[in-house]
Amino acid sequence: MERKLTKKYHFSVEGETEKWYLDWLKDNINQCNRSRYKVVMDCKVEKDPYKRAKKMVTTSKTEIWHLSDYESNDCFSRSTISSYY
Question: Which of 10, 52, 56, 74 is least surrounded, with the fewest CB atoms within 10 Å of its CB?
Fold first, then answer.
């Protein structure tokens, strides 16, 4: 069996549920015989994605993704999400 190249992904997530999902997704990708790569997910629970990005030390161009769930369209939820961007 041929050795797979590794791809690393960086995420900040709002809570444990999103982290569990990404861990589950990583495990499923890595167990799949058809996947072309082994994936590593550097996933931290952090409400503020900029805080997470500032803490990271990288030597190459890196994309960092922030995942959050959609709670509702009320004023509080919209203002909380838009404060990060």
Answer: 74
